């Protein structure tokens, strides 16, 4: 069996860049703190440091339910129900 190269752990700045790239690739991505920790294999304190860095940079925002999403997408999340989808009625 061939030996696999050993990957070095990402630095914190590399992890920040990885998170940015994932949120840029998936503009509607919305993660809870627990989901973000699992996705990037972080402890809760590491995940909080990552969240703080990206929120302070105004790249991510926290929603009312505590989820993280791109700051520029926040306006699209809180639409009033009546504005979310038009209603279509059949004419009789």
Features:
mainly alpha; 9% strand; 3-stranded antiparallel sheet; Arc Repressor Mutant, subunit A; 92 residues
Write the layout of secondary structure elements.
Elements: H1 12-25, E1 30-31, H2 33-40, H3 44-56, E2 60-62, E3 68-70, H4 81-84
Helix pairs in contact: 2-3
Query: What's the order of the H and E elements?
Result: HEHHEEH
Average pLDDT confidence is: 82
Helix content: 40-55%
Approximate strand percentage = 5-15%
Question: Cα-atom Rg, whole angstroms?
Answer: 18 Å
What's the CATH topology label of one domain?
Arc Repressor Mutant, subunit A
Describe the main β-sheet briefly. Answer: 3 strands, antiparallel
End-to-end separation: 71 Å
Question: Would you mind describing this structure in some detail?
Answer:
The model is unreliable at 79-89 (pLDDT under 50). The relative contact order is 0.13. The protein has four helices and three strands; from the N terminus they run αβααββα. By secondary structure, the protein is mostly helical. Strands 1-3-2 form a three-stranded antiparallel beta sheet.
Question: What's this, in brief?
Answer:
The protein has a domain at 12-73: Arc Repressor Mutant, subunit A (Orthogonal Bundle), CATH 1.10.10.10. It has 92 residues and is mostly helical.
């Amino acid at each position: 069996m061939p030996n696999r190269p050993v990957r070095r752990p990402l630095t914190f700045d590399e992890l920040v860049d990885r998170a940015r790239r994932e949120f840029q690739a998936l503009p509607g991505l919305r993660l809870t703190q627990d989901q973000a920790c699992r996705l990037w294999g972080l402890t809760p304190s590491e995940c909080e440091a990552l969240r703080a860095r990206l929120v302070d940079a105004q790249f991510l925002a926290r929603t009312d339910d505590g989820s993280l999403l791109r700051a520029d997408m926040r306006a699209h999340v809180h639409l009033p129900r009546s504005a979310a989808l038009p209603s279509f009625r059949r004419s009789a």
